[in-house]
Amino acid sequence: MYDQSKLSELIRFAGIDAGSTVIDVYPGDGDWTRLFSDIVGPKGRIYSFVPAEVAHFKNDPLGRMSTLAKEPGRENVEAVSADLIAMPGATQPADVLWLHLFYHDLHTALMQAKGATAADFNRAVYERLKPGGRYVIVDHAAAAGVGTSDAQSLHRIDPASVRKEVEAAGFVLDAESTLLANKEDPHAIKVFDPSIKGKTDRFAYRFVKP
User: Fold this and answer.
1) Where are the alpha helices (DSSP H) in the chain?
2) Are 187 and 140 in contact (CB under 8 A)?
3) What are the pLDDT digits (tens) for 46-75?
4) Are the C-beta atoms of 55 and 82 separated by less than 8 Å?
5) What is the pTM of this model?
6) How many other β-carbons are positioned within 10 Å of the β-carbon of residue 80?
């Protein structure tokens, strides 16, 4: 999805290095899980966390991550699944929780089907991270001021709403990046629209657990 320079910058931004423990939430095809596995090395640990809310999908997301974890050299990867807010019980204390193009889904009917809210999940993240741990969120930006109203329809979210919600859980904003910004994005179309797919205006926040 990103060229090597952007990948390197995002990894630096997240603070992932050798020996880190990372939780990759809703890992999709597992690209980030593999990348992080290579970086943290044999002394690190990657939890490829598939929310139970999506584990029933036809593409078998948990099965795919379980297969990935069996690849040669992936001994530091563990595929796990639980309800979103039960994530702390399925993982160990982590240095980084990585949430790529997923935070907006916390405001969709699918993710809230079992009663979880964004506030619930943010508290779960806070519980699972070590003191000084980093909560890194990259997502599609909605127009300023719309809050969470475009999360279901356009798969976008207002960055200000994300910051407000995460800080309410006790996190402190440590840094933000404009690396993936795109001023040409009109913010009024679905992120899967061919005219903008892969080129959406994206924000990146790094929050820290005090």
Assistant:
1) 4-14, 31-40, 61-69, 87-90, 118-128, 159-168
2) no
3) 999 999 999 989 899 999 999 999 999 999
4) no
5) 0.96
6) 17
